[in-house]
Amino acid sequence: MALSTIGTNQIASEAVTVPKVTDQVLSSRNLLINGAMNVAQRGTSSSGLGSDTSANFIVDRTYTNSNSAGRYTASQNTVTDLPGFANSLKLDCTTADTSIAADEYLLLQHRFEGQNLQQLKKGTSSAESVTISFYVKGNAAATYTIELYDFDNTRTFSQRFNVTTSWNRVSLTYAGDTSGAFDDDNALSLILMMWLHAGSNYTSGTQNSGWAAYDATTRANSSDTSFFDSTNRTFEITGLQLEVGDTATPFEHENYGTTLAKCQRYFQKISGGSDRFVYAGKGQGSTTVDATIPLTVSLRASPTMNAVDSRAFNDAGLTTSSSTTPTVNNYSDNDTHLAINCGGFSGLTNNEVNTWGLSSNQLNISAEL
After folding, report:
1. 365, HSE (Cβ side, Cα atoms, 13 Å)
2. Measuring CA to CA, which residue among 76, 56, 58, 57 is closest to residue 66?
3. Rounded-to-integer distance, Cα 44 and Cα 244, Å
4. Domain range list for the chain
5. Could you tell me what percentage of the chain is helix, strand and coil, using 3-state DSSP and rounding each to the nearest 5?
6. How buried is 116 (Cβ within 10 angstroms: 0-12 exposed, 13-18 middle, 19+ buried)?
7. Are 348 and 283 in contact (CB under 8 A)?
């Protein structure tokens, strides 16, 4: 039958199934960002990790954090043995920790804004199931836990998955939760957590098998593998996807520019060095410059920044240096400019026009959840 002659009457509804629908028709279904691990704005490797409970980003949007005597290296790894994927996030254990204290953990996390989850209908009788899928492999067989944590309503749902020495696609479906709606805003509502190492504070209870009120002791499983059991241990993941429904559809690939722009809602950087980029500003008193930075895309929220080496100039020949942390002077939702305030200078004149720029290092502008 010619394609042009096929209409709705020629297609039985039961014949139209998800596996038969093309990726193009099913676009914009992955609720998380950078699941192919392609974007890594902060760098491609970091070593000696393990004791830092704050977020350690290698690839954008998915990060690790930990509290352990064990140590590991996290890297954006080149994939050569999984057709369709070029990059992964890889963890390599470098210091083992076989005496697991009660409060230890190693987590891989991805966080979501509530306004991007309203289609889940959470907290209603029509709550939708979601399916997590990803490709994973390790140096040896292992079993770990994935938890969905509802931050707004402190509810959790955990399931276990297996790792082998070859790439394997894992698919786990989480039933819809009729209790507790997600807030409709730009704040944190949901966390996807992979428990790769956990002490008894998180494993001593009976792991829940459905949505339940938060209980720290049921989040992971006492029978799970510890990533820190050997310095041979590795964990490698790519193709991470969270979608509405009870079926894992093919991974949704998108062009690099699209993914980068999505990541830049949460993190942008400006490279420094020899006044590589300069921005218009004015003196605010004698020691501070107010300047405006153009953003690539609007940020999720008012950001934090890191300490940088910077200089201010004016047409009278003044050059003055600073090594302080810029602060936000003015932020507006959906705006593509950021007004900042940077102190630590000398000899400035109030309200006199200056230019401001980085003399070295890199300005990190973070609006992560």
Report:
1. 26
2. 56
3. 31
4. 11-263, 267-366
5. 10, 40, 50
6. middle
7. yes
Report how far residue 246's alpha carbon sits from residue 132's, in angstroms, rounded to the nearest whole number: 9
List 142's β-bridge partners, or say none.
163
Residues 6 or more apart from 275 whose CB is under 8 A from it? 311, 357, 358, 359
Look up the pTM and report it: 0.92
Query: What is the DSSP secondary-structure string of 317-360?
Result: S-EEEE----EEEE--TT-SEEEEEE----S--TT-EEEEEESS
Q: How far apart are the first and last CA of the chain?
A: 52
> What is the distance between the alpha carbons of residues 38 and 267, in angstroms, rounded to a whole number?
15
Class of domain 11-263: mainly beta
- Output b/e per residue, 182-215; b: 16+ Cβ within 10 A: bbeebebbbbbbbbbbbbebbbebebbeebeeee
Residue 128 and residue 175 in contact, taking contact as beta carbons nearer than 8 Å: no
Query: 282-339 pLDDT, tens per residue?
Result: 999 999 999 999 999 999 999 999 999 999 999 889 999 999 999 999 999 999 999 9
Q: Is the dihedral of CA 315, 320, 323, 325 positive or negative?
A: negative
Q: Within its chain, how far is the Cα of 101 from the centroid?
A: 27
Give Cα 202 distance to the centre of its chain.
23
Quick one: tokens of 73?
Answer: 């290296």
143, β-bridge pairs: 162
Q: H or E element: which one contains 263?
A: helix 256-264
Instruction: Express each pLDDT in 117-167 by its tens digit.
Output: 999 999 999 999 999 999 999 999 999 999 999 999 999 999 999 999 999
Asked if residue 202 lies in contact with residue 219, where contact means CB atoms within 8 angstroms, the answer is yes
DSSP annotation of 262 reads H
Residue with tokens 């209908």: 121
